[in-house]
Design brief:
Blueprint (H helix, E strand, L loop, with lengths): L6 E2 L8 E5 L11 E2 L2 E9 L1 E6 L2 E6 L2 E5 L5 E5 L4 E8 H6 L3 H10 L4 E3 L5 H13 L7 H18 L10 H12 L5 H8 L3 H12 L3 H19 L4 H7 L5 H12 L3 H9 L1
Parallel strand pairs: 1-3
Antiparallel strand pairs: 2-9, 4-7, 4-9, 5-6, 5-8, 7-10
Helix pairs in contact: 2-4, 3-4, 8-11
């Protein structure tokens, strides 16, 4: 079996959440994924670029970045950065009794970058207090959850109209399912969501201006590109992992959206 995309684990297996100042040694990193956790990065200083899934975001402080568990990303920071990092495991979100935290994260799920007008002093105090509390011998979980809830509330408040999507519960859950189990099958997701395929298409058209099939295709193509560029998997292995009936069908599917075969696409980046 060929190697997959490199996965980093920046948090101890015994911890559910980690808060600390941004490591200035990590100004330049190679493309990688995270080991089933969400990363929130807040820069108060620094400039450069943050690359997430084939899209480059300029680092212009102050700014927030959110990196989801399945995304491939890397840093290219050309001035010394200053800020904080929060790493949140799925286990933390499963155990927390404060549903507000999950609700706020749900509102942020479609955002990768959130700009703010100026450095917020209360945010600075919140991050500093949490990073100190997490180092205590006996960590007060209520303090950590309260601080996280406050930061997320502020972050949601910073979102402008352009970065928010008026998704319904069904379409939001649809996107969540796509991040967990990727299949080229509208009926599969409609059944999971308790709606008909037609209703799912109608909702997707209303919210995204695209059909459910188009949304699925975007996620599949993005994942295929990740695997082609950042792993050593063969085309047939990728096709098998995504449950295409054969490599020929998979190649035609990819070419329909990218106008290149998977191998042509991969070679175009190695020239």
């Amino acid at each position: 079996m060929q190697s997959s995309i490199k996965t980093y684990n920046k948090i101890s297996s015994s911890l559910d959440i980690k808060i600390e100042p941004f490591d200035t040694r990590k100004r330049y990193t190679k493309p990688h994924k995270h080991n089933k956790y969400l990363e929130i990065v807040y820069f108060t200083k620094g400039s450069g670029y943050h690359h997430i899934d084939f899209k480059s975001y300029e680092i212009k402080s102050p700014v927030f970045f959110l990196v989801k568990k399945n995304q491939v990303h890397n840093w290219e920071i050309d001035t010394e950065p200053k800020g904080y990092v929060i790493i949140i495991k799925e286990s933390f979100l499963e155990k927390t009794l404060d549903k507000f935290i999950n609700t706020q994260l749900h509102k942020l799920k479609n955002s990768s970058k959130v700009r703010i007008k100026e450095v917020n002093s209360s945010l600075e105090y919140l991050f500093k207090a949490m990073s100190l509390e997490i180092k205590q011998e006996f960590v007060n979980q209520e303090v950590i959850e309260g601080g996280l809830k406050s930061i997320l509330a502020k972050l949601v408040g910073f979102l402008n109209e352009e970065s928010t999507l008026g998704t319904t519960n069904v379409t939001s859950n649809f996107l969540e399912l796509l991040s967990i189990n990727l299949k080229n099958n509208v009926t599969f997701y409609a059944d999971k969501l308790g709606v008909t395929s037609q209703n799912l298409n109608t909702l997707c058209n209303k919210v995204f201006g695209k059909t459910a099939s188009d949304i699925i295709a975007e996620h599949i193509i993005k994942e295929v590109k990740r695997q082609l560029l950042y792993s050593n998997k063969s085309v047939s292995e990728i096709a098998y992992d995504l449950e295409f009936k054969d490599t020929s069908h998979f190649t035609k599917y990819f070419k329909r959206y990218v106008l290149q075969t998977p191998l042509q696409y991969k070679k175009s980046f190695s020239l």
